[in-house]
């Protein structure tokens, strides 16, 4: 079993790499090689099988052709720029989120006798307002951000290339992944993590939107679980609908904060400072809130059921299991 991960230096890419190395298997098969790609340098961790890495831009000529030549059995395509960055820099967003994906899919298409499973990291940003109380599996995708448009085009390409028999794709509409470890990134959704992560570390955090905002979340641990499960799903079960809206925990920010209080106490909550930012709120207002995700659950995807559990996962995985 050979595997390629694009965007491997990102948080989810690093956690997926660590899990694959720890398991040594994917879909019940021994891993013989893992290749890590990103536009920034990737650390190569020790493993019982060959792990290699490259620093490259998928949109540059020849890069995706070389990746396809590795003939990996599974390609996890995680590379791209996040929502806020894609909205601020139109050209960069399309280059990273669309041009790179199209180049990768085409490189696979043009290679003879090569038909890998491609797991594509999409986003709930493919949906746009007005929303029903809970978005079902048949709700139309009408993104209202450039990031959402880029991800939706990637979904359409993935579905068509799968239909034509060029690759065996599955697109995962990830909810907001929270609590993200490390430093804040340029995602507009970053505050969902920072208002939990920073107080747990005894640091202040800024909340740029009101506490009545509702959003759907899953932990980084669940995100890795989604990717691993997707790698092994049969094409027959997926059918023609290759893109799946994933489950998560829908809560208001106020409920997030109360979960933090239950896990870490009042002192942590007092470190959160409300500082409204109209630009952030304008982006958030176009985001979906709740999902039915019945199809994903029927396909075997699972996530946390309470935000308390999401916080506990962060404590276990990032803080050594205790505060």
Question: What can you tell me about this protein's structure?
Answer:
The structure is a single chain. The protein is of the alpha/beta class. The chain has two domains: 200 residues, 3-Layer(aba) Sandwich (Rossmann fold); 84 residues, UDP-galactose 4-epimerase, domain 1 (Alpha-Beta Complex). It has 13 helices and 14 strands. The strands form four sheets. Strands 5-4-1-6-7-8-12 form a seven-stranded parallel sheet, sandwiched between helices. A three-stranded mixed sheet has the order 9-11-13. Strand 2 and strand 3 form a beta hairpin. Helix 4 packs parallel to helix 5, helix 6 packs parallel to helix 9 and helix 9 crosses helix 13. The longest helix has 20 residues. The mean pLDDT is 95.
Q: How many whole angstroms does the radius of gyration measure? A: 19 Å
Q: Main sheet, how many strands, which sense, barrel? A: 7 strands, parallel
Give the helix tally. 13
Secondary structure: helix percent: 40-55%
Order of helices and strands: EHEEEEHEHHEHEEHEEHHEEHHEHHH
Query: Which topology of the largest domain does CATH recognise?
Result: Rossmann fold
Shape: globular
**Which structural category fits the helices and strands?**
alpha/beta
> What is the rounded distance between the termini?
39 Å
Strand order of the largest sheet: 5-4-1-6-7-8-12
Low-pLDDT runs: none
> How many β-strands, per DSSP?
14
Architecture of the largest domain, CATH level 2?
A: 3-Layer(aba) Sandwich
CATH superfamily of the largest domain: NAD(P)-binding Rossmann-like Domain
Report the β-strand fraction as a percent range: 15-25%
Whole-number mean pLDDT: 95
Domain count, please report it. Answer: 2
Q: Classify the oligomer.
A: single chain
